[in-house]
Amino acid sequence: MNLTFYGGQERGLINLDPRTKFLIFLASGILTLSSYSDTGVAVYSLFLCVVIALCGKPLTAIKSALPLGVVLYLRAVLPLSKGAPSLIVLLITALSTVFMFGFPMVMSLLLIVKTTRISQFLSAFQAMHLPVKVIIPIAVFFRFLPTVADEWNGVRKAMAFRGIRLSPVQIICHPWKTIEYVLIPMLFSSIAVMEELAASTMARGMDVDIRRSSYDRIKLGVADYCLILIIIGMMIGVMILGHMVKGGIAI
Asked: Max CA-CA distance within the chain?
């Protein structure tokens, strides 16, 4: 999936407040840790796909829903396949379980980074009355993510020019070469980028303890309140399903 960082949601049917998106991210983490039901996680994951589509990213929602459908199909078919080797069934079951319970976190993170601009992040943090010492590291972190993606592309191109290909097989068979060719250049470039971003943030006066003006209007709307109620209801429902499955009731 081609991840484009920090897009807007102007073309979406709904415009969510960044605080609502952070609440969705928090709820995804809680549900991932407290749910034991495939049904509850699947319903919540499909709900996140719908939210991303309504926020103006329908292609991202479709690309994310397709692998989810494949994993759900495999988890439904595997218990019925009696002739398959047990090792393969066990491996697919383990990988699909990790995918299922990590999918809500990934989707909620995509909702944040693909539909929210950095200026909206900062305005939301100020509306939450967070101290400047907390806002500055978060601002540097969010600006650091797309820079890491650019640095990663540069390292891959440099390796390709030297005839070195990065593949999962090579990473497994030659871990020390992977550290030498990938991790060390990324580490040094990341340190330099972090220093530049921190200096840029300070130069813009973000260390001054005053409220900054913004063109983005941060305010909870009707869609935000409705979504918060839906999230609370789904959290209660998924937790109930999880406790039912944990108690031995098949869902």
From this structure: 68
Q: pLDDT digits over 7-27, tens only?
A: 555 566 788 888 888 888 888
Beta strands (DSSP E) in the chain are none
Q: Is 31 among the domain residues?
A: yes
CB atoms within 10 A of CB 46: 17
Residues 173 and 108 in one domain: no
What totals of helices (H) and strands (E) does the chain contain, helices first? 10, 0
d(CA 200, CA 221): 33
- Model-level pTM? 0.70
Q: Is residue 223 part of a domain?
A: yes
Is 111 within the bounds of a domain? Answer: yes
Is the torsion defined by CA of 165, 167, 172, 173 positive or negative?
Answer: negative
pLDDT tens for 32-72 read: 777 666 777 888 888 899 998 888 888 888 988 898 888 88
Range of the domain at 166: 129-203
Q: Identify whether the C-beta of residue 195 lies closer than 8 Å to the C-beta of residue 101.
A: no
Please indicate, yes or no, if residue 53 is contained in any of the structural domains.
yes
Contact of 148 with 53, CB cutoff 8 Å: no
